[in-house]
Design brief:
Blueprint lengths: L24 H16 L4 E3 L9 E4 L14 E12 L2 E5 L9 E5 L2 E7 L5 E7 H14 L10 H19 L1
Antiparallel strand pairs: 1-2, 2-3, 3-6, 4-5, 6-7
The structure holds cobalt (II) ion (CO).
Length: 172
């Protein structure tokens, strides 16, 4: 089932998510719904809080060399944690909760992540370049933050002004 994606500045997006304790049907339904919702909105990642569920759950589906989001490559991460990060990269990011906006954000270039899969199995992976950006972006949602909070004060002010204009035009 496709769920509604919360948009900035919905206060729920500021909520810190908590760990999943039971790897049950309810979790699996959430994961399936998140996948449908992400694909419907042409996203490459989604955090549970973006569909109003404050649990440490995120999904990532990166396009392969043929620019296709293969479901076999889908990452479903429960209770994910970054255990190491190094390096630096700047990437133009977007977010389904702030549709239509892209901003350059500085992140670690290389990370190590630990998480549980949908059945609770512990997985350890390494990510660099764009996949590392996707991980850090989604993990930030679980902390109650959105990517534009990383902007400089000047750029943030410019964003807020443009976003207000955008929201007004949508209400009409
Ligand atoms: Co996002």
């Amino acid at each position: 089932m496709i769920r509604d994606v919360l948009t900035y500045p919905n206060p729920l997006l500021r909520k810190k998510s908590i760990d999943v304790v039971e790897f049950n049907d309810e979790l699996h339904t959430l994961l399936d719904d998140m996948y449908e919702t992400m694909m419907e909105n042409a996203g490459v990642g989604l955090a549970a809080i973006q569909v109003a569920v404050p649990l440490n759950v995120l999904i990532i589906s990166l396009p392969n060399d043929e620019d296709f989001q293969d479901k076999n490559d889908l990452i479903e991460a429960i209770n994910p944690k970054i255990t190491h990060k190094d390096g630096e990269q700047i990437f133009s990011e977007g977010c389904l909760s702030i549709p239509g906006f892209n901003e350059d954000i500085k992140r670690a270039q290389h990370i190590l992540v630990e998480y549980n899969d949908r059945n609770g199995k512990l997985i350890k992976i390494e990510a660099e370049d764009f996949p590392a950006v996707a991980w850090q972006h989604e993990l930030e949602h679980l902390e109650g933050h959105v990517f534009i909070e990383n902007l400089s004060v000047t750029k943030r002010k410019k964003f807020e002004k443009e976003w207000k204009k955008e929201m007004k035009s949508k209400k009409k």
